[in-house]
From TrEMBL:
It comes from Sus scrofa. SUPFAM superfamilies: Sec1/munc18-like (SM) proteins. The keyword Hydrolase does not apply. It is a peripheral membrane protein. This is VPS33B late endosome and lysosome associated. The gene is VPS33B. PANTHER family: VESICLE PROTEIN SORTING-ASSOCIATED. It comes from the Eukaryota. GO terms for biological process: protein transport; vesicle-mediated transport. InterPro entries: Sec-1-like_dom1, Sec-1-like_dom3a, Sec1-like, Sec1-like_dom2, Sec1-like_sf, VPS33_dom3b. GO terms for cellular component: clathrin-coated vesicle; late endosome membrane; lysosomal membrane.
Length: 597
């Protein structure tokens, strides 16, 4: 889809050089240029940018870093140490995805601005699969949803602009969320400035959706049960590849495996509920064995054809099959140890609003047993969002138990979660009695404006229960939900819950806009933050109108991707995903945590 040259990212230092690279840029760079390609461009040694000093003997140093202040200090310490030692070298700093003025200011303050040359690697779209693009900006979530830092708006707008220059204008654009709105506005300005690039072109993509992650925290906080989501939760998929350890490979070595549509075994099971995967793999193994057994009774010519045409493919399939069976066994062992069934049962109870006391007791036990600090936080956040905040008594009790169990160093994390709206305490004004008292005052007050004022204290809450009811997020099923033949997107959470983000997309597509969704938008606290930008569709073919680009700002989960793939198959759409990064519940909690693992 897209290609890069190393010179495009500014690695244009002729001669031997050492490359210092930031940890979270290693995986994206590896997808584009592995070590052997770097060696061809005369990169001698690779160093990781970290807190300890690095000793390089090269006369040329190249730094590939994110535009962060701490990275500038790291580079400044290295350059200034060389100055003190009377050593002269060439230094090049490459910022990815863009250079920020604040970074240049720090280099100037440190007195090295004239000693280094700066460049940008405008890397904003990494194709991870046939339908998945990532900006590989995991820090986006914390930067915006916690710190309120808007630095990445330009990066998002530039990525959208690049896509529209490649695939023509988007006839229908829908968005929800503050960041979605800001990114859309800046993107449109870029389009106006370069008017003519897409003018007159036939659109190839009919619809685009922009969604902020905070519109739907619930989905991201749930345990994943589709195969690809479970692999991510268990082994961590990084940049489309995963490291399978010896427990999966059945050898003493780990193996890095690329997970995409080219892996034929993975492609068939990635979107399946985990309960169906084992039976599929065992059937696949039997079919494979039957193909091997065909060798018996072959004459020399048939055997020659078999070896030259089929054997290599069968061996590759056998290797992949063994890996995925090993991964399933490893997941099963870990989940059995964690009593996964009980965990899922608690999550479903929280989503449905039943047995809240029992669920709270389960979370308390989870904390007391010190199962996992990240998992305990996740369950507390899920309880808080589904219940519109915790009642003060429960909030204090759970917080105290957590700090006693996992340590007081987590205190700042609670402050972060509160600021982001992930773990909140119900204010006295949110109790039923307080609401009733406000309503009784309104009876005698005829000024309509006062109604809004009276309920303003309720406006910043999650309202999950009301939204869930409005959009029918909890399916009502007679008998067992058939996970082998799913009936709706709820299968990605065992039939218990339809992802809110995916339901919103489904509803907007059906209605061709936000009409009739006013109440949902109000409950999402996004009345001022939804938009529809529609241009003439006369140039859009019926085929392009079936193609939909969904942009997740703040990360998306594999469960959401699987759900929308299912919707696409059911309704005849084809979805393409662009995300700031692929995320899951653990990554969200780690982004908010002040205690680094």
């Amino acid at each position: 889809m897209m290609t890069w040259k190393l010179d495009d990212m500014g690695l244009g230092l002729p001669g031997k050089k050492d490359l210092f690279i930031e940890a979270d840029l290693m995986s994206p760079l590896d997808r584009i240029a592995n070590v052997s390609i770097l060696k061809q461009h005369e990169v001698d040694k690779l160093y990781k940018v970290e807190n300890k000093p690095a000793f390089s003997s090269s006369e040329q140093l190249c730094f590939l870093v994110r535009p962060r202040i701490k990275n500038m200090r790291y580079i400044a310490n290295l350059v200034n140490a060389d100055k003190l030692a009377g050593r002269t070298r060439k230094y090049k700093v490459i910022f990815s995805p863009q250079k920020f003025y604040a970074c240049e200011m720090v280099l100037e303050e440190e007195g090295i601005y004239g000693d280094v040359s700066c460049d940008e690697w405008a890397f904003s779209l990494l194709p991870l699969d046939v339908d998945l693009l990532s900006m590989e900006l995991p820090e986006f979530f914390r930067d915006y949803f916690l710190e309120g830092d808007q630095r990445w708006i330009n990066t998002v707008a530039q990525a959208l602009h690049l896509l529209s220059t490649l695939y023509g204008p988007f006839p229908n654009c829908y968005g929800i969320g503050r960041y979605a709105k800001m990114s859309h506005e800046l993107w449109r300005k870029l389009e106006e400035e370069e008017d003519g690039e897409t003018k007159g072109r036939r659109p190839e993509i009919g619809h685009i959706f922009l969604l902020d992650r905070d519109v739907d925290f619930v989905t991201a906080l749930c345990s994943q049960v589709v195969y690809e989501g479970l692999v991510d939760d268990t082994f961590r998929i990084k940049c489309g590849s995963v490291d399978f350890g010896p427990e999966v490979t059945s050898s003493d070595k780990s193996l890095k495996v690329l997970l995409n549509a080219e892996d034929k075994v993975f492609h068939e099971i990635r979107n399946e509920h985990f309960s169906n995967v084992f039976s599929f793999l065992s059937q696949k193994a039997r079919n494979l064995q039957a193909q091997y057994d065909r060798r018996r009774g072959m004459d020399i010519k048939q055997m020659k054809n078999f070896v030259s045409q089929e054997l290599k493919g069968l061996k590759q399939e056998h290797r992949l099959l063994s890996l995925h069976i090993g991964a399933c066994e490893s997941i099963m062992k870990k989940k059995t140890k964690q009593d996964f069934q009980e965990l899922i049962k608690t999550e479903h109870a929280l989503l449905e609003g039943f047995n809240i006391r029992e669920s709270t007791s389960y979370i308390e036990e989870h904390i007391d047993r010190q199962v996992s600090p990240i998992e305990s936080l996740r369950l507390m956040c899920l309880l808080s969002i589904t219940e519109n905040g915790l009642i003060p008594k429960d909030y204090r009790s759970l917080k105290t138990q957590y700090l006693q169990s996992y340590g007081p160093e987590h205190l700042l994390t609670f402050s972060n979660l509160r600021r982001a709206g992930l773990l909140t305490e119900q204010a006295p004004g949110d109790t039923l009695t307080a609401v009733e008292s406000k309503v009784s005052k309104l009876v005698t007050d005829k000024a309509a404006g006062k109604i809004t004022d009276a309920f303003s204290s309720l406006a910043k809450r999650s309202n999950f229960r009301a939204i869930s009811k409005k959009l029918n997020l909890i399916p009502r099923v007679d008998g067992e939900y058939d996970l082998k033949v799913p009936r709706d997107m709820a299968y990605v959470f065992s039939g218990a819950y339809v992802p809110l983000s995916c339901r919103i997309i489904e509803q907007v597509l059906e209605r061709r806009g936000w009409q009739g969704l006013d109440e949902v938008v109000r409950l999402l606290n996004c009345s001022e933050l939804v938009f529809t930008d529609r241009s003439k569709e006369d140039k859009a073919s019926s085929e392009s109108l079936r193609l939909i680009l969904v942009v997740f700002l703040g990360g998306c989960t594999f469960s959401e991707i699987s759900a929308l793939r299912f919707l696409g198959r059911e309704k005849g759409y084809r979805f393409i995903f662009l995300t700031t990064a692929v995320t899951n519940s653990a990554r969200l909690m780690e982004a908010m945590s002040e205690v680094k693992a």
